[in-house]
Amino acid sequence: MASWRVAKRMFCAAAEKAAAPVRRGRWEKLKNSKAGVWCRSLVSDYREASKEIFVGAWERPVKASVYMAVLGGAWACFYTKPDCLSFETALLERSNQLGLLSPWIRNATSDSHVQGLVKLQNEGRLRHTSLGLLSLIYRADYDPDTTLYEARCSNLSVPWRELPQRVVDVGFAGRWWILNSKMQDYDVNEEEFKHLPPHMKVTSPPNVQGVERNERLHREYWLALTVDDSKIEVHVMDRKEGSVSEDSLIKPQTEKQAQT
């Protein structure tokens, strides 16, 4: 009878303990909340997407290599994209290069392009904009500090469709391409050669024999002169004979003067 009572008490205590609500911690509440469920689903989606990427790259290596090359090239272009300060530095260097040359030998195209950019920069009309993978330098109508009505009114501003006509340079892969192209042969004035015949205007690169000949002549130019001993002896004998003949001519003249 006593054992039956003990067992009954144990079963009742177990039933009460099971029926009592379980206290949940803060972490459990946070996981079961809406934000926790959304974060877990987001992490699960990213995990599945990453798994599919690796599986797809393993199954199609060529396609994955092309994608990686494109992404790497885009990142390199974005990282090496020149900014406005680099354009000002490049323009100053090109202007100094032209300033070291005489006006008679400057290339007219290079000089006019650089002088136009310098004028726009002094007027404060150059603008810089970034397009992600490349940069653009374009000209505006007014300085940004201008307080004129035409410069401040938004209705009179230049539309974006006119931007291609206003672009003066394009920066890509660490270079300003239009400025560099205009500076090709900046020290050659084509006006000096416009009166030459056509066959003299065209120059062809030298062949291998011509290059070797020029190099050989250049090396021989710096060699010390060597004279043979036989040539020296012949030269000395010639000088001695010349001095003897001069003495023979001078001696009769002195005797005639003494007789007179």
Automatic annotation (TrEMBL):
Cellular-component GO terms for this entry:
TIM22 mitochondrial import inner membrane insertion complex
User: Which GO terms of type biological process are on file?
Assistant: protein insertion into mitochondrial inner membrane
Which stretches are transmembrane? none
Please give the Pfam families that the UniProt record associates with this protein: Tim29
Q: Which domain of life is it from?
A: Eukaryota
**What PANTHER family does the database record attribute to this sequence?**
MITOCHONDRIAL IMPORT INNER MEMBRANE TRANSLOCASE SUBUNIT TIM29
Q: What is this protein called?
A: Translocase of inner mitochondrial membrane 29
Organism equals Mastacembelus armatus (zig-zag eel)
